[in-house]
Amino acid sequence: MPDIPGPASPPGNSRSTSATIPPNILRSLSVVAGEDGVDLRPELARVGLEEAVMRSAALRVSYRQGSTVIRRALELTGDERLGLRVGSAQHLTAWGLLGFALMACDTLEHAIRTGVKYQNLSGAMMAWSAGAEEDGFVLRARLPDPALDPGVGVFLTEEAFSSVVTLTRLIVGPAFAPSRVAFVYHAPRDITPFSDLFACPVGFGAQDNRYVVHPAWARTVMPGRDPVILASVLELLDAQVAARRDQQELLEVLEVSIAQGLPSVPSFAEQARRHAASERTLRRRLADCGTTYEAIVDGVRRERVEQLLRRSEPTLRDVAHQAGFSDERALRRAVRRWHGVAPLELRRRFERSEGPGGVSGR
Predict the structure, then answer these.
(1) Is residue 214 part of a domain?
(2) pLDDT digits (tens, 9 = 90+) for 55-102
(3) Distance spanning both ends of the chain, measured CA to CA
(4) Mean pLDDT, range 148-152, rounded to an integer
(5) pLDDT, position 122
(6) Is residue 300 part of a domain?
(7) For residue 140, which of 331, 42, 5 has the smallest C-alpha distance?
(8) Do the beta carbons of residue 25 and residue 119 sit within 8 Å?
(9) Which residues form the domain of 331?
(10) What is the CATH classification number for the domain harbouring 320?
């Protein structure tokens, strides 16, 4: 069977700003953080995810919303291995129809390939690919945005592999263990949590994030194998993928038009005219995507501000103007809402994280 790559990421900044991800990780994160006495509801509300909204099955979140909440959860819990715990708290029911499809697949390899094919419906915040290699059946995971906060990147990688091993054991039995797991980042001080969870050799400082399944395990017949049910569920999943593609195209078009218009922002009425739709219809379509026009504008402005602050040349006045803010005061309020710090402190963070090859000191 050929290798199965993950779906291609949309161009530009849409992976970061568009609300297209089922919030499974954030829901599990809230539960796990609550076990540590940390209430994430205020942090979720700050990014527009109030408690009532989080209960909606139709809710979709953006990478920006997700990474912001994850970053705060890491700070509030102080748990460097929070990603492992959140992944271990996952259950197939959180994946909806896709979880049902995985249980009905023929073999474990078939289930993994199916999960990769429909990963955008699972709430995954990593980009997955899979294929047979010399040492077994290999899953690879990469971050969607290399500029993500390093701590958030580690969290997402650990959550991803932890959820895979946890869900596999729920399906085929607790005896399952991968042959080897490898991470691109350097080894932490204590690797015991990794050894305990994966029950296999775990490497660090690797070229890519790899999760290797022994061929014998890959050929394991799924206990819930049902070809008829699987075919029916896959039809429904294909319909969901098609609907999501239409939603993504709408969000991308709006984001591009806003980004191209900055520092001026096209009015909502103007956007409706461009789409040959009434304002009410366009608002309903955006609601179906789990977002609003105001949230999209906010995301595009944030992306522009972060791009400008990564450079040393623009003054804060320049940044405010180019991102469409009325003045520096409005810029400061927005950056503090997004990152919890002032613009100049955010610029210094970018300098530290990017090193000599990034923005220069100022």
Answers:
(1) no
(2) 777 777 877 788 889 999 999 999 999 999 999 998 888 888 999 999
(3) 53
(4) 83
(5) 85
(6) yes
(7) 5
(8) no
(9) 238-357
(10) 1.10.10.60
Instruction: Report yes or no: 139 and 213 within 8 Å, Cβ to Cβ.
Output: yes
Instruction: Single out the residue of 277, 279, 246, 295 nearest to residue 53, CA to CA.
Output: 295
The residues that bridge with 182 in the sheet, in sequence order, are: 203, 210
Banded model confidence at residue 15, pLDDT cuts 50, 70, 90: very low
DSSP string, 69-103: HHHHHHHHH--TTHHHHHHHT--GGGGTHHHHHHH
What's the rounded Cα separation, in Å, for the pair 291 and 18?
A: 8
Closest of 24, 94, 85, 17 to residue 54, by C-alpha? 24
Whether residue 314 is preceded by a cis peptide bond, meaning omega within 30 degrees of 0, is no
Q: At what angle do helices 293-309 and 279-288 cross, to 10 degrees?
A: 70
What is the rounded distance in angstroms from the CA atom of residue 122 to the CA atom of residue 120?
Answer: 6
In total, how many domains does the chain have?
1
* Rounded-to-integer distance, Cα 219 and Cα 227, Å: 16
Residues 266 and 293: beta-carbon distance below 8 Å:
no
273 in a domain, yes or no?
yes
Decide if 272 is inside a domain. yes
8, burial (CB in 10 Å: exposed 0-12, middle 13-18, buried 19+): exposed
pLDDT band at residue 20 under the 50/70/90 scheme: low
pTM greater than 0.85: no
Give the tokens for residue 55: 């209960």
Please say whether the beta carbons of 152 and 353 come within 8 A: no
